[in-house]
Structure to design on (1095 residues):
């Protein structure tokens, strides 16, 4: 009996957890009765004697703890989030999911983690065996299973296999971040069980989660006993990792071996673990079933070693300290003159400051707080100060509700001013103002000819960037760099027994220089900004237009008047398009810029139809390779191309620019900052125009690649052995599908979360891309990042097929006779091609990064850089690839979605006007981000499916002689001109209408009031008038349409020998191309949402 006591206690704990869920669920109805009736007799009359008896018994029990109603609030929740005797308990997995989604750890959540973490550090995975209610269900199922097996019923017995709990945890965290925490109801078995019980008891309704619980029980009973807990449960995985430090563990007593035939412990273990072989850790959950059945009593739960005990104690203390650090002090507030407002629905408000002063006949009071300590992710201006003020007329003994003019002064100088004709709400005047710095201020009220002054102090905390984020980005880079450096030194030791001291000193100096470079990139993280941080908003207009960041907000008030004011020499020609303005639920102001008029749209539609026939019948049949002009014939240009400094110098300059923008983004203001405008308006907006004219020239000067070159080579002026671990990159990833996936993710972050409108996140993104490039170079020794991962490089490459610049072999016959292919493999003068292409076979610009290594490595001087006609590579597509075809399809779909997401049709803020996002949220009951994700997925999939359908229809109509998959790959190249020129038309608006916002920010890049070049107060207008913009946008879309039709026509002729079959195959594709161009025109015709901030 003594040996069975632990199992009895374990079962009692499991039942107690179920009882707690039931009690907490019934506590809601009890509190309703308490508030509504507060009398057992009334409950009896209304609900019967049984309910009244239960009500009375519960009230008597709770009275032992104090006030019954208040005491009942100490028993809430279920496994996942609960309160027991007033102590908050939080599931670590759900807490981690909340932190990832909310990017914050509230104090109560941190305190709720203390007990679970201490429990696992003390006893290991005991939650799984003693407290998980689902474990009780599984053990009951196992009892049924044993009975069925005795009856001879054949059942599956899957054990072992891959343990996927970590992957389930990772996938759940990503999914919950994207669509909400409800996904854990499907991934955490005990959470599903608790929720279904809670709904059934509290609401009297059956939940669909019962099917989830039932399915898991059936799997455990009939197919795989113990598999769900051991192999799939994410909580089990997390507790297993933490349980490695547990102080008390199951262990084998003594050193004697177990009897050879004994396997009682393995048989009793629900997971088939073997304590006898001491291989049960760390998966063991200390259920103790093996202890009870061991015939020699050689198993016990005991303390770990003293060293482990000290380590666990230190870990527990550190965890406690960290969690207590997160738990900030709370301060409630109530102002004498003000009701207890929940200003931003954040309780308690931290920090709040209340000031009251009597001056003559007036009493003035104010509650003042800024956004330090609050959730600032939805704040456009996170360093604003909110002021709630009242005036009380002591002579009249009543609150003053009339007109008043307020001035905020600092050192006697006016900082801000605002006026009210009457109170804003009840007896309160309220405003939200941005103050320049911490310090002592005075709120001066001019009322009734008197000047009433209220001194106050405000602390605008200096919040720098996240050191954790910087460490998370820079740490892996430094670690891989050190490992690669050590690996190369070992290889060199094996290759030669000694090296000269001078060479060693040179290598040491290079390594030191690289380490200093890494440190310089991380230095902005140590800077302290003068304005606090805010996270990107998930509300309002969805996302800023690219580049409409701090500068646009700073000029919001001027945009309200329809056009910027002209300020002398700083004014530029042009004006804004007609504007409308709406307020979002989050308090932001959305500026809606009108598109071109309807008759312009009709003209564009007519031209699309006419030009479709012209391009098909007249332009497309014209053949010809086109004129080429080799710039490398010039000896000076050729010497530059062969010089290592030709690429190194531009890349070093771009690295300096990158470091400067990262510093400004991390150290500067989050309200007015150069980095978002410079990156998303100037760079990203202008990049497509650069690609149109110069192809993949960005890859040539790319600072991310420059850092990878510098850290993996440690040399600039000569060719050396690369520094890398020389891992083998997976062959199934050697395509552009990873770049497509990353481009989709970046688009979702930009438009769904507004990441690109925030200088901090823009800087982190730049650091992350640089870190990815460096890590890939150090791990694989190739330009894996450039060739397969970088969406910017692959976009430049695939659009570069249209550019008038190419790098090709001078003479094809010379390449055919070449046996070494130095352009591909490299030699003593040049590195191997970073993207693995050979001029002997390459006929398109898709993968070329224009690094000019082929000029250096070709000893036959057979490389040319040619000027050529636009779209030359698309006229005769050589060796089309499926991954590139899908890149073209997704580029088109994402570009069109980008335009759609900025229109009121996607998200409207006009009162009473429906939009796609509103419809999804209202109809499906989803959150905004979930609705956005679903809408984005549909908006991308629909064009892709339409393209797929047109290819299949074309193949069928042409007689099926060419498979539809071949059409899908070949015709995709006809989408590139359409995507490129719509991209140009879309970005033209941002560059021309918003590009001048960079002018004042160049003088004040950090947003701290500087005026370096005398342009800080300039308010330049748009570069183009709206009519000129419309003409250029329509012209660009028409050019893309014509080129798309030409490419499609030539693809059809290349696929089919029979002209009639080619035309039948082309017709569905032609209709699809026309539909795309009409959709692009219509998007340009629609109004565009451009949020300009809170005003």
């Amino acid at each position: 009996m003594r040996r069975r006591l632990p199992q009895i206690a374990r079962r009692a704990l499991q039942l107690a957890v179920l009882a707690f869920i039931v009690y907490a669920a019934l506590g809601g109805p009890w509190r309703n009765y308490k508030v509504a009736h507060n009398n057992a007799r009334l409950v009896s009359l209304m609900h019967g004697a049984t309910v009244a008896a239960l009500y009375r018994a519960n009230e008597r029990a709770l009275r032992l703890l104090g006030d019954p109603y208040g005491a009942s609030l100490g028993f809430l929740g279920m496994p996942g989030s609960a309160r027991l005797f007033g102590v908050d308990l939080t599931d670590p997995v759900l807490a981690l999911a909340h932190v990832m989604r909310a990017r914050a750890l509230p104090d109560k959540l941190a305190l709720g983690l203390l007990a679970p973490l201490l429990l696992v550090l003390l006893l290991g995975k005991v939650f799984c065996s003693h407290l998980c209610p689902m474990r009780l269900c599984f053990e009951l199922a196992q009892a049924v299973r044993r009975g069925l097996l005795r009856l001879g019923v054949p059942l599956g017995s899957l054990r072992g296999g891959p343990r996927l709990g970590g992957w389930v945890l990772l996938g759940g965290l990503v999914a919950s971040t994207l669509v909400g925490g409800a996904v854990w109801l499907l991934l955490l078995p005990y959470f599903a069980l608790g929720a279904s019980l809670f709904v059934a008891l509290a609401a009297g309704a059956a939940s669909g989660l019962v099917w989830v619980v039932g399915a898991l029980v059936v799997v455990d009973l009939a197919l795989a006993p113990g598999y769900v807990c051991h192999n799939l449960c994410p909580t089990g995985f997390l507790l297993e990792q933490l349980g490695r430090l547990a102080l008390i563990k199951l262990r084998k007593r003594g050193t004697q071996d177990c009897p050879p035939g004994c396997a009682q412990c393995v048989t009793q273990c629900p997971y088939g673990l073997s304590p006898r072989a001491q291989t049960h850790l760390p998966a063991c959950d200390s259920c103790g079933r093996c202890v009870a059945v061991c015939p020699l009593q050689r198993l016990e739960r005991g303390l770990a070693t003293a060293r482990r005990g000290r380590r666990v104690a230190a870990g527990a203390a550190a965890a406690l300290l960290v969690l207590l650090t997160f738990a900030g002090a709370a301060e409630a507030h109530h102002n004498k003159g003000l009701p207890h407002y929940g200003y931003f629905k954040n309780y308690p408000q931290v920090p709040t400051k209340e000031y009251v002063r009597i001056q003559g006949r007036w009493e003035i009071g104010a509650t003042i707080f800024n956004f330090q300590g609050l959730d600032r992710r939805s704040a456009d201006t996170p360093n604003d100060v909110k002021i709630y003020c009242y005036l009380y007329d002591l002579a009249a003994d009543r609150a003053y509700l009339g007109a008043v003019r307020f001035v905020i002064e600092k050192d006697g100088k006016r900082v801000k001013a605002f006026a009210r004709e009457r109170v804003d709400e009840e007896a309160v005047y309220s405003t939200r103002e941005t103050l320049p710095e911490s310090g002592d201020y005075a709120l001066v009220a001019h009322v009734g000819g008197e000047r009433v002054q209220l001194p106050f102090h405000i602390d605008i905390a200096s919040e720098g960037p996240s050191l954790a984020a910087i460490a998370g980005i820079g740490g892996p880079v430094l670690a891989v760099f050190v490992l690669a450096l050590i690996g190369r030194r070992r290889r060199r030791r094996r290759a030669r027994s000694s090296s000269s001291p001078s060479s060693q000193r040179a290598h040491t100096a290079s390594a030191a220089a690289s380490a200093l470079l890494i440190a310089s990139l991380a230095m902005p993280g140590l800077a302290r900004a003068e304005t606090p941080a805010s996270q990107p908003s998930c509300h309002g207009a969805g996302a800023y237009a690219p580049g409409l960041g701090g500068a646009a907000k700073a000029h919001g008030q001027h945009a309200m008047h329809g056009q910027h004011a002209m300020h002398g020499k700083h004014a530029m020609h042009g004006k804004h398009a007609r504007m409308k303005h709406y307020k979002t639920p989050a308090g932001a102001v959305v500026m809606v810029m009108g598109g071109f008029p309807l008759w312009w749209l009709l003209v564009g539609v007519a031209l699309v139809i006419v030009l479709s026939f012209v391009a098909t019948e007249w332009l497309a049949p014209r053949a010809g390779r086109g004129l080429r002009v080799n710039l490398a014939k010039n000896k000076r240009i050729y010497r530059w191309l062969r010089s290592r400094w030709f690429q190194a110098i531009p890349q070093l300059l771009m690295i300096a620019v990158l470091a400067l923008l990262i510093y400004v983004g991390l150290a500067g203001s989050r309200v007015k900052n150069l980095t978002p405008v410079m990156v998303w308006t100037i760079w990203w907006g202008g990049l497509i125009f650069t690609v149109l004219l110069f192809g993949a020239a960005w890859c040539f000067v790319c600072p991310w690649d420059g850092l990878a070159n510098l850290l993996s080579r440690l040399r600039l002026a000569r060719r050396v052995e690369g520094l890398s671990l020389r891992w083998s990159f997976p062959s199934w990833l050697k395509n552009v599908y990873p770049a497509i996936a990353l481009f989709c993710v970046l688009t979702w972050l930009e438009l769904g979360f507004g990441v690109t409108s925030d200088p901090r996140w823009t800087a982190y993104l730049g650091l992350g891309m640089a870190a990815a490039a460096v890590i890939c170079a150090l791990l694989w020794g190739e330009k894996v990042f450039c060739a397969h991962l970088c969406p910017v490089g692959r976009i430049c490459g695939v659009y570069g097929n249209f550019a008038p610049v190419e790098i090709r072999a001078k003479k094809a016959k010379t390449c055919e006779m070449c046996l070494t292919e130095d352009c591909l493999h490299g030699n003593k003068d040049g590195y191997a091609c970073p993207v693995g292409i050979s001029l002997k076979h390459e006929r398109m610009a898709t993968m070329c990064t224009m690094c000019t290594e082929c000029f250096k490595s070709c000893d036959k001087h057979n490389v040319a850089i040619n000027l050529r006609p636009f779209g030359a590579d698309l006229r005769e597509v050589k060796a089309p690839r499926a991954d590139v075809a899908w890149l073209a399809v997704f580029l088109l779909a994402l570009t069109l979605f980008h335009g759609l997401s900025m229109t009121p049709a996607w998200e409207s803020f006009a009162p009473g006007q429906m939009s796609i996002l509103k419809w999804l949220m209202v109809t499906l009951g989803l959150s905004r981000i979930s609705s956005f994700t679903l809408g984005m997925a549909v908006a991308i999939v629909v064009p892709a499916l339409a393209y797929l359908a047109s290819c299949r229809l074309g193949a069928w109509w042409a007689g099926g002689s060419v498979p539809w998959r071949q059409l899908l790959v070949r015709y995709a190249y006809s989408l590139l001109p359409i995507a490129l020129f719509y991209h140009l038309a879309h970005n033209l608006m941002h560059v021309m209408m918003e590009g001048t916002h960079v002018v004042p920010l160049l003088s004040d890049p950090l947003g701290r009031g500087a005026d370096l070049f005398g342009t800080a107060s300039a308010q330049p207008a748009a570069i183009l008038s709206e009519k000129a913009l419309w003409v250029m946008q329509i012209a660009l879309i028409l050019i893309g349409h014509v080129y798309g039709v030409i490419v499609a026509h030539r693809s059809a002729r290349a696929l089919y020998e029979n002209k009639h079959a080619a035309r039948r195959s082309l017709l569905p594709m032609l209709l699809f191309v026309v539909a795309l161009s009409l959709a692009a025109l219509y998007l340009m015709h629609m109004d565009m949402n451009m949020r300009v901030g809170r005003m």
Summary: The longest helix spans residues 5-36. The longest strand covers residues 384-393. Residues 79-247+304-328 form one domain.
